Amino acid sequence: MVWRAFYPTTQNKTMIDKTYQPSEVEDRIYKTWEQAGAFRAGRPERADAKPYSIVIPPPNVTGSLHMGHALNNTLQDILCRFERMRGRDVLWQPGTDHAGIATQMVVERQLMERQLPGRREMGREVFLKRVWEWKAESGGTIVNQLKRLGASCDWSRERFTMDEGLSRAVVKVFVELYRAGLIYKDKRLVNWDPKLLTAISDLEVIQVETKGHLWHLRYPIEGKTFNAEDPSTFIVVATTRPETMLGDTAVAVHPDDERYKALVGKNVILPLVGRRIPIVGDEISDPEKGSGAVKITPAHDFGDFEVGKRHALPQINIFTVEAKLELKGSEAFLAGVAKSAELDETLAMHGLDRFAARKKIVERLEGKGLVEKIEPNAHVVPHGDRSNVVIEPFLTDQWYVNAKKLAEPAIAAVREGKTNFVPKNWEATYFNWMENIQPWCISRQLWWGHQIPAWYGPDGKVFVAVTEAEAQSEADKHYGKATKLTRDEDVLDTWFSSALWPFSTLGWPDMTPELKRFYPTATLVTGFDIIFFWVARMMMMGLHFMKEVPFRDVYIHRLVRDATGAKMSKSKGNVVDPLGVIDDFGADALRFTLARGAAQGHDIRLGPQDVESNRNFATKLWNAARYAEMNGCATVKGFGPKSATETLNRWIAHEAANAAAEITAAIEGYKFNDAAAAAYRFVWNIYCDWYLELAKPVLLGSDSASKRETQAMVAWARDEILKLLHPFMPFITEELWTVTGKHDALLALSDWPKLEGLADDNAEGEIGWVIDLVTAIRSIRAEMNITVPIPLVLAGASAETKARAERWAEFIKRLARVSEISSAAAAPQGSVQLVVRGEVAALPLIGVIDIAAERARLAKEMQKAEADIARVDAKLNNANFVARAPEEVVEEEKEKREEAAGRKAKIAEALERLKGAA
Length: 918
What we know:
This protein is an alpha/beta fold. The relative contact order is 0.09. It is built from 31 helices and 29 strands.
């Protein structure tokens, strides 16, 4: 289908073009909104309006729009446009995140491609200047892409996590938390990236299914002569990482495991090293797994780190930052170990890469009979999401936040209903994370980011201050003389600055008018994967510094998957590019598709047929507006739907009011799919398929009061449709609003429909009866493949129904392909009976179809539907299948069952109707 853009042909006369071309209209419409300042918060006419604010989850400055962004920002935009039309003073706060690792990698890669000196060669100051230059050149890409989607942010207030104001907020927060004892330095395990040479967050770690091995190693028991044939002389431990054994400081067994109770408190001799390490009783060991004994390496395993704390075990770090063995000169490694030829051979491995060390260690252990067996073992191995190297649990000095203390008021706020999660079930996830929270590692070994405001004296004493001058003053006072300080080279975790986003973007630490007006924000729209990393931390920081929750509602959406239900990934080649979809179908079609699919608690399946279907919906709307225009339907100033006298026109007013109420309630309840479905039904089914069809004879008839009223009503209903659809499909609705109406304001700033006093049960009773009757007859014709006109008999009909049938006889005959309409006391023999609004309508079918053959056909279809249901139930009732099958496969089976059950219900209805036929 070729779509061309509409452009007004003259200053005074506008006509809707035959087709609609989104690619040409959308950019023009967005510029119109921007020139009018339509999205600006604090518009003068809204000075007394109730505020409504949302902060955008700041995309990475390096980012490009992906389908997750498209969903997230479409839902935010629906809320903002909806509330703006309801008269609220809306602030949708935009901005981008400096994305420490991602941005530093982009610039370092650029330096390498251009064969320029690397980061360390050019030095910190020059490198950071280069990063800012890159940001100025390329950092706005995603902002322009969000505009293509239609995002109605107040771009005049765009912020960046490293702009001057936000950086001031970050420093103030760090210093205040440090002085309150809530930020401190500690030696703990972190996720260490040996390629990027920095600690990374759990969110930056991906678990990769890997085919590896499980090595079962024999550790000799102290005081016994090792004999591979005598199990009493050793204890077997299993590990997927034999290279870490050099850092073992214990073997753990379950305290209730009868096999090992007598050994608890005794020692083993660590092979290849000679270190005496204790056998401890700890519940980390599972008696049902392997030998029931596990090696404990506190410096290289998160679980072992906790065991080490419980049993006061030494922490021996055996790796460098590049994950190479670091043994020589290590006091911790050599402590308590006697010199030996075996130890010398181990020390000779100093500097080996961890995987080369693994191979060497296994070879040596095999040579000594200390490997009981090696099994193939598929397991997940943590990798850095950007470096793609195996992440190393690494013991290092880092800065931490006392998250447990900050979490207490954040937990209470949700329990007390000050902040609500939608859907509600995500609160359980929030509580689980928050109640088991660990210290938050906030330092990163990078250059791009907020440098930690800490300076060290010559003896390592730390001075934390807002400025270097302040730190120097404190140091000079402490040492009693001018003393040279060295600044901490680390920067803060990106999530640290993001945690301040709801109030730092509004001007804090200054108490700005915007902060007073728009904090706390109304709603946060975000994905489930960052509830802990971002939502929880914003709650903690907001409550600590603002003494109030940062948002009232948190709407959590799920994933956008491909058409088969599979998760999108580059490796699968199934990633759908939203910009490509916009190019092919227009932004409105993509937005409406995402909104229709956004059911609470469910992932969205997205295929080209879905977007095409909603592009067709946009075409339907466009064509309906053209049809109305061609038939003289134009907005009439001062016309009100309450003045309508025609039953059909009173009916459409009644239906418009119902649709407006349904859409409003659904958006207020964050039921975006229900709101979109209600809009779709009203536009496609009620307005286009029924109202315009039923109004056709009047519109095509001679001039009359009835025609003029209908023309005005068609235009009024069209305008209400444009308002109701605008939050979902802003471009096409704004274009049609401009072209078709004599309006005083942009649609984006027009009033949301408040359609009160339009309920009309009499009009609905009459038109609704006609629609239900025609729909029921069409359904029978389709079910039974009836292709010829058939008679309709109203059996025992009331006088009111007979009168309705007479008034609408021509429509019923034409739309339902009925040959004649008559009345009778009872349904004729051999007829199918329909109950329409409590009264019987009969379709005599003798001579039209073979009723017995139709019964047999339906019975066969029923058997097939039941077999399909049974087949799916067999799978879904199989706990093994449900546990092992991918989530999308289980969901697909559920959908198959739902389809088959719906089919069965329709067949049952058809069989029931045939009971009355001979």
